Amino acid sequence: MKVTIKQIAELAGVSRGTVDRALNNRPGVKAEVQDRIKKIASDLGYKPNPAAKALADNRYNTKKIGVILNSDGNPFYEEVLHGVRAALNTFAEFGLKSSIKTMKGYDADLQIKLIDQLVSEKVKGIVITPINTPEVVNKINELKNQKIEVVTINSDVLDSARLAYVGCRYKKSGTVAAGLMGMISSGSNERYAVIGSSEKNLAVERRIQGITETIHQDFPWIEITDIIQNEDSDTISYTLVKELLDSKQDLDGICFAGAGNEGGMKAVLESGKKLKIVAFDLTEVIRRGLKDGTVVAAVCQEPYKQGFEGTEILVKYLLWNEKPKNELNHTELSIVTKYSI
Known about the structure:
alpha/beta; six-stranded mixed β-sheet
């Protein structure tokens, strides 16, 4: 009886895609796993089918994926993009094509326009940081009906037909930040402001929810005086934080829960005030702040992994119909201080 890739995959405890890559010496398989697969294939007397291989190669060559990131002006996404490109490079031997589009802010109409552009380019799937509006959710559901799969990364949207999400646990990340605020507090009355991004960013909105709920429950002596949305803009962040510091002379600290950190940090430094600052993500401005003591700690969420795994999940599904093991794929949270960089 003819030996199949499916049989080898079952014996090796891996996917058929992994077997295919191992037998054809393609990247993305650990050496020991490749050796085990090849031994199983040899022991079973596996013979590749040239016609099937040619058909598969032709199928791979027709696959094109799109990527949409609202990353313009947001240095956090530099590592996300590195992850996306690394994943695309890993599968380059399959003839995979890609189209990467970026945008700034939370204009749902613009994001839908970019999606339509990718559809016109005949992509089979899209990796996206979605804007959390009903219009974008409806668009993702339309794509599903068109047999175009979607993987969301970094942020998600509710009640959509996307294939999977890769990113941190939003609310948990806020809980971690609140815990840091509580631990560095004096234990008596303190006043903090939280700088967010937009109500259309589900990740940051849930993060702020985690901050406020944890402060209320575990650190009642801390008052959240203001929650400000800066649309991930350094210019807006600078203006709003400057106004905040002028009006709240007794402010003890700030939590930067999203992007726009550089503008906000500039306003803090110009004020000359010594504030307790907790931030998110290890961008260059936050790294400098940690080193010089301006920032106490930053909560990080593996941006490279978000880009790589989100793209990998989509590509594997398109090439081999390999469904992700989990719909929600969470990256790890970590705390960075001046002593760990």
